[in-house]
User: Fold this.
Amino acid sequence: MSYSNYLLKSGEIGQARLEIKNISISYGKNIALENISFNVEEGQNIALIGPNGAGKSTLFKALVGLLPLDSGKILIHGLQVGHHTDCVAYVPQKEEIDWQFPITVFEVVMMGRYSKIKKFKNPQKKDKEAVYESLLQMGIRDLAFSKISELSGGQQQKVFIARAIAQEPHILLMDEPFTGVDMSTKETILAFLNNSKKSKITVIVATHDLNMAAKNFEDVLLLNKKMIAYGKPSDVFTQKNLSEAFGNQVMFLNDRAFIDECCPANRYEHKGVFGD
Ligand code: ADP
Ligand code: MG
Assistant:
């Protein structure tokens, strides 16, 4: 049964778009994710938070069918991963992309249209329009024919988000899009996230910026191999939960919590988190 048939027959649009049911994933003997369960509703934006090695990228790869599950199920619109050719778009972590590959911005973004272009056919007018529209949304229309290797980190991130937008996904996964980019790129991404709510795209963003997540996301999911907490930032970001996720990597300064990734924990005076 095709994905669109499923939607038409069941009439279940508007129910949980994404259901993660008790999944575990390992690389050989190394367990990366253990018994993870949560649902994400249509149009919901959530921040996925956890330290390096927590399993954030592993979860995203499983959601696009790049990794097998040891156990459990992932259902998208009620169907297991594999039934959806283009309904989930994935913006990988910058380190996973070969930026030296000799390809233009236009060509990268057109890749987002591949599942919509018929076999052995060239891109049609509507595909080219979708590419330009995505580039406009990310504010990089003028870079269409630049080589991706010539761009700044922020511009490169925008290109991969434009590729995901061109795919017209229902679910969009962004892996650490705010890492190593300038303020204007962060603002463009946040503006896009705001808009995505109106167009009912479900978005999951992996990040380790706690304050940014608390300020810009209604829901956050705290992960470290196991799911530690999921809900509103004020409920999830308790000192207990953050310490469980980050150990001594998390700093509490006055009423703010943040992750210190390169300095020893004892450099700071520890106080409460969010005023407690
Ligand atoms: P995160 O994205 O939160 O930093 P990852 O999903 O990349 O975490 O990694 C989760 C765990 O899985 C880590 O222990 C990591 O070393 C391991 N891992 C990730 N990718 C591979 C791989 N290709 N082969 C073996 N182990 C991996
Ligand atoms: Mg990662």
Summary: The first helix runs from residue 3 to 10. The first strand starts at residue 18 and ends at 27. The radius of gyration is 19 Å. The chain is about 30% helix and 25% strand.
